[in-house]
Design a protein that fits this description.
Blueprint (H helix, E strand, L loop, with lengths): L1 E7 L2 E6 L10 E8 L3 H8 L9 E2 L4 E8 L11 E4 L9 H4 L27 E3 L2 H4 L1 E2 L6 H4 L5 H11 L7 E5 L3 H12 L4 E5 L3 H9 L4 E3 L6 H9 L4 E6 L5 H9 E9 L24 E4 L6 H12 L9 E6 L4 H10 L6 E5 L1
Parallel strand pairs: 9-10, 9-12, 10-11, 12-13, 13-14, 15-16
Antiparallel strand pairs: 1-2, 1-4, 3-5, 3-7, 3-16, 5-6, 6-8
Helix pairs in contact: 5-6, 8-9
């Protein structure tokens, strides 16, 4: 089969590989829609995971089941399915502890384009299909459904980890597609004021669509000063970091209240250390929590989130700014995520 791969650091291209063999609990799937991710960019061009050789990229897909193993009960060939970016082994100790994202070790619930070939191939293997696939609702398009693979659950995980509650003031730093879904998640959890930090007009407009009450342009000046001016100097309840540089943690610490939460969902692809100012952290006694989390995967989460689209509680269409058609357009879609033109939020390739 053909696949689009990371050949080595800083180099991508098309390769030929054998069609994956599946085990008794697995499924073989062919993609119907895929979406390149900034994570792919970090992996290839920032060496965030170290070198990978001839590894097929991609972890966001809606597909059609081609074949299932003998022990798969709930899925059959022909089913249209959502494939989450995180597909763990559910019997591991880490999964039993409630952190399936790290089944087998740090971040190893993230299988696609990390420790096994991803979804940018003509076929791909989904391990433990009954636990890691979800049926695509009939009234949800494949383009919309692929946003459930990663963008929606990652953004919502940022709001969940921040424990956003009714009426709170929340800052979201970085309003690419993940940050926009963090805005949407915070809004659905009942946040009162949502301050979205980003520079592109298209993203600021989308942030307001998803519930942001204020937008801050980091190119217009120091965001700490802009946010303090907007709040009259009052600290905010929660900060969700969905983009930016390592400096975002220092900025968040300067605007958070005592006992506030800083929730990171940004893939930190470069740099060595995160700095936390001793005084801003309350001399180590301010009850300010910093938490970073990989999005939850698995069937149940996909089914819950797909209900938001099925019953019109969430509209992901503003994310879909670039629609490409054909398997050979995967490379173009990835380079769009790398170059980030000002009119881009998210590219989707239908196959």
């Amino acid at each position: 089969m053909k696949g689009f791969a990371m050949l080595t650091l800083n180099k991508v291209g098309w390769i030929e590989k054998p069609k994956p063999a599946i085990g008794p609990m697995d499924a073989l799937v062919k993609p119907l829609a895929i979406s390149p991710c900034t994570s792919d960019v970090h992996t290839v061009w920032e060496a965030a995971l170290g070198d990978r050789r001839d590894l097929i990229l991609g972890h966001e897909a809606v597909g059609e089941v081609v074949e299932v193993g003998s022990l798969v009960k709930d899925f059959k060939p022909g089913d249209k399915v959502i494939i989450p970016a995180i597909t763990p082994y559910w019997e591991t100790v880490e999964s039993q502890m409630g952190f399936h994202q790290h089944s087998g070790g740090m971040l190893l619930g993230w299988q696609f384009s990390n420790v096994r070939d991803g979804v940018f191939g003509e076929y791909f293997q989904v391990i433990q299909a009954d636990g890691n696939l979800a049926l695509l609702p009939d009234n949800v398009s494949v383009e919309e459904g692929v946003m459930l693979s990663d963008m929606v659950p990652t953004g919502f995980h940022g709001a969940d980890n921040a424990e956003v509650s009714y009426g709170e003031c929340v800052v979201v730093i970085g309003i690419g597609p993940v940050g926009l879904m963090a805005v949407a998640g915070a809004n659905l959890r009942g946040a009162g004021r949502i301050i979205a930090v980003g520079s592109r007009d298209i993203c600021q407009k989308a942030a307001r669509f998803y519930g942001a009450t204020d937008t801050v342009d980091y190119k217009a000046g120091d965001i700490v000063e802009q946010i303090k001016t907007a709040t009259g100097g009052k600290p905010v309840d929660k900060v969700i970091i969905a983009g930016g540089t390592l400096e975002a943690f220092e900025q968040a610490m300067k605007i958070i209240r005592p006992a506030g939460i800083i929730s990171n969902i940004n893939y930190l692809g470069s740099g060595e250390y995160i700095k936390v100012n001793r005084v801003d952290w309350g001399l180590g006694m301010g009850h300010i929590r910093i938490i970073g989390g990989l999005m939850p995967g698995g069937r149940k989460n996909m089914e819950r989130l797909s209900n938001l689209l099925k019953y019109k509680k969430l509209d992901v269409s503003p994310l879909l700014t670039h629609r490409l058609k054909g398997f050979d357009q995967i490379e173009k879609g990835l380079l769009l995520m790398k170059d980030k033109p000002r009119d881009l939020i998210k590219p989707v390739v239908t196959i």
